[in-house]
Write a structure and sequence with these properties.
- The structure holds two protein chains of two kinds.
- Chain A is an all-alpha fold.
- Chain A contains 14 helices and no strands.
- Chain A is globular, with a radius of gyration of 24 Å.
- Chain B is mainly alpha-helical.
- Chain B is globular, with a radius of gyration of 23 Å.
- The model of chain B has no long low-confidence stretch (mean pLDDT about 85).
- The chains are: A mainly alpha, B mainly alpha.
- At the A-B interface, helix 1, helix 6, helix 7, helix 11 and helix 12 of A face helix 6, helix 7, helix 11, helix 12 and helix 13 of B.
Chain lengths: ~325, ~300
């Protein structure tokens, strides 16, 4: 297992170098030199310009600059936001829990609905239930989620008035951030109704963000079930007279889960990309909205740092999924 | 026709059918895929003849009709069938012209990523060694970042515009094509017909493009169709985020970006552009699935 871990970690190195090269190059590829970019439309006098170029090390050889950049990254120094003047890493860490909370709830929703629905479609292959599930999942897979979110707002928030339109919590509540997860922080606080309000705010964004993973999980579960249901041990279990519930739930589903777990892991990247759109629609104060706002404000250090951190998070989650997969299925661990 | 069919049935040896016809026969069994193809043809025709089909210019403003509802809703009129937006532009005309942008985006993105991807994949699979390692590592890095995020980074560098959004989306799809072509090339290179071609003196370029490449055609067509829909979706998402086509371009995603302000007041401004994206993307996905089943019977369940 330890060797497996080392190989997996080693495989991350080229990707890490590549991602840092990308973010390093990004700020230098934007038309105008970095100091001009940071000065923005105000402009800057030549003297100050030269001094800052020297101060930030932009006048050194490019390779040296990259080495310094990597050094900064490892110290957690990703520069300061041009707008708030606060360190980028602090801003990121402040907003990150909001995105994680949304992503977790969205994933739980996708799994809770996608798995049973996929099993149903697999078991009732070729029947109306199967066709319905497949048609809906194709629609979910093709859904422009930014539009889906707006539709749900029109239906549930505007017409029916069931859910709030935006944000994480009504402004009548003030909750001290402890964990950064609003659903937990409101429970810890003694403000009555705030927890339910936080949940209310979570409903629509997590449905929107969970839609594509839901469709993918349902399709994958269905095809994995179809494969497993034709295996001999399922027939044996049926022949032994076990209840259909037991055959499907225990014998088939357990083995069908292996590819499904992989697909769930692969959805993490999709989830973070989807969070950018979802957070924009619902004004959810997470890193997705922050990244887009930063691009709009030409706050390049924030964009640069944010992209790097998001890429690192995705790399680490993929690593975790790989490791988990190795734990579930020993064949994988020994194959490489 | 009936007579010919009868003879064919009576004949013990089935008549030879060409690969195109065989694909079409298999494709046409799938009703959903055929319906999807019909939708695609209609959208394409509307896009090509947008100037004639659309009742108004997509950017013409009618100052007497801001946010007019569609004709069946209360207060709507047949003058603007699907209503107007906040500056009095006809929604139907904008949607029709939007089809042009979406299909064009799909075509350009696929052309770029297909040709560059095929080239890189062929080189990686044929040359092997360091070159392959370099190309494939680069593709791995690109795959490590979600496509939309990578596209956003590229647009942040190049600046927001329709052209840059197209370039950005095209770059993010490169790895899919490169990986697939490389894998197929490596598998094909060991086969006898390639050895035969090599022995009879075919040069590297001929081997790559004439001998091996046609054998990647089937999976490439399927991948291109499926990526076509993703390209439309991603470009619309960039437009929605204000990073793609800029107003007043009637691109569907860009139209939605502006429409957000009217979720409370004018549902039609929000509903139709997204519906157009959904229907188009759905059609391409369905057709892509059908095409995959038709071209690769092994995958059919």
């Amino acid at each position: 297992m330890f060797r497996f871990l080392l190989t997996k970690l080693g495989g991350l190195v080229p990707t890490f170098v590549g991602v840092t090269l990308l973010t390093f190059a990004m700020i230098r590829l934007i038309p105008g030199d970095p100091i001009e970019v940071m000065a923005g439309e105000r402009g800057i006098n030549p003297e100050r310009h030269a001094r800052l170029m020297h101060e930030f090390g932009f006048d050194r050889p490019i390779l040296e600059q990259y080495v310094f950049y990597i050094g900064d990254v490892f110290r957690g120094d990703l520069g300061k936001s041009l707008v708030t003047k606060k360190p980028v890493i602090d801003e990121f860490l402040l907003l990150f829990p909001a995105t994680v909370e949304l992503s977790i709830v969205a994933m739980v929703f996708a799994i809770l609905v996608g798995l049973p629905v996929g099993v149903l479609a697999g078991v009732r292959r070729g029947r109306p239930a199967d066709h319905t599930v497949m048609a809906l999942s194709l629609a979910g897979y093709s859904m422009p989620i930014f539009w889906w979110g707006l539709l749900l707002i029109i239906l549930f928030s505007v017409t029916l008035g069931w859910t709030p339109v935006s944000g994480r919590l009504d402004f009548i509540y003030f909750v001290q951030p402890v964990t950064g997860f609003m659903a937990i922080d409101t429970l810890l606080s003694d403000q009555e109704g705030s927890f339910l309000d936080a949940l209310h705010h979570l409903v629509l964004p997590s449905i929107v963000l969970g839609t594509i993973p839901l469709a993918v999980i349902a399709r994958m579960t269905r095809s994995a079930m179809l494969e497993v249901l034709s295996e001999d041990y399922v027939r044996t279990a049926r022949a032994k007279g076990l209840s259909p519930f037991r055959v499907i739930g225990v014998h088939a589903l357990r083995n069908a889960l292996i590819p499904v777990v992989t697909v769930i892991g692969l959805q993490v990247g999709t989830l973070l990309a989807g969070a950018i759109l979802t957070e924009s629609i619902f004004s959810w104060p997470g890193i997705g909205k922050w990244l887009i706002d930063s691009i709009g404000r030409r706050d390049y250090p924030s964009v640069q740092g944010g992209i790097l951190l998001v890429a690192i998070v995705i790399m680490l989650v993929n690593l975790a999924v790989d490791l988990m997969y190795g734990l579930i299925n020993p064949r994988i661990r020994h194959a490489r | 026709m009936t007579l010919a069919a009868d003879i064919a049935v009576a004949d013990p040896v089935p008549p030879a059918i060409g690969p195109w016809r065989e694909t079409w026969l298999s494709f046409s069994e799938n009703k959903g895929a055929v319906a999807a193809l019909a939708v695609i043809v209609v959208v394409a025709l509307v896009a090509v003849f947008a100037d004639w089909v659309a009742p108004y210019s997509p950017i013409a403003q009618d100052r007497d009709a801001f946010l007019a509802p569609p004709f069946w809703a209360e207060g709507g009129s047949a003058k603007f069938l699907l209503g107007t937006d906040d500056v009095g532009r006809d929604m139907l005309s904008r949607l029709i012209h939007g089809a042009r942008y979406s299909l064009l985006i799909g075509c350009i993105v696929i052309t770029i990523s297909l040709s560059v991807g095929v080239l890189l994949g062929l080189v990686a699979g044929y040359v092997r060694g360091m070159v392959e390692e370099l190309i494939m590592r680069l593709m791995d890095i690109m795959l490590a970042i979600p496509a939309l995020l990578l596209a956003i980074v590229i647009v942040a560098i190049l600046g927001p515009s329709l052209t840059n959004a197209i370039i950005a989306v095209a770059i993010t799809y490169l790895p899919h094509f490169t990986r697939m072509v490389r894998a197929t090339v490596i598998a094909e290179m060991t086969k006898d017909y390639v050895t035969a071609a090599r022995v009879s003196g075919a040069r590297a370029l001929r081997l790559m493009f004439v001998t091996v490449l046609p054998n990647c055609a089937a999976p490439l067509i399927v991948l291109a169709t499926l990526n076509f829909s993703s390209a439309i979706l991603d470009a619309a998402a960039l437009g929605f985020l204000g990073l793609g086509a800029q107003p007043p371009t009637p691109e569907w995603g860009t139209m939605l970006a502006k429409a957000r302000e009217f979720v409370q007041s004018a549902w039609w401004v929000v509903t139709f552009p997204g519906l157009a994206v959904l229907v188009t993307v759905l059609a391409f996905n369905l057709a892509g699935d059908g095409l995959r089943d038709a071209l690769d019977p092994k995958l059919k369940r």
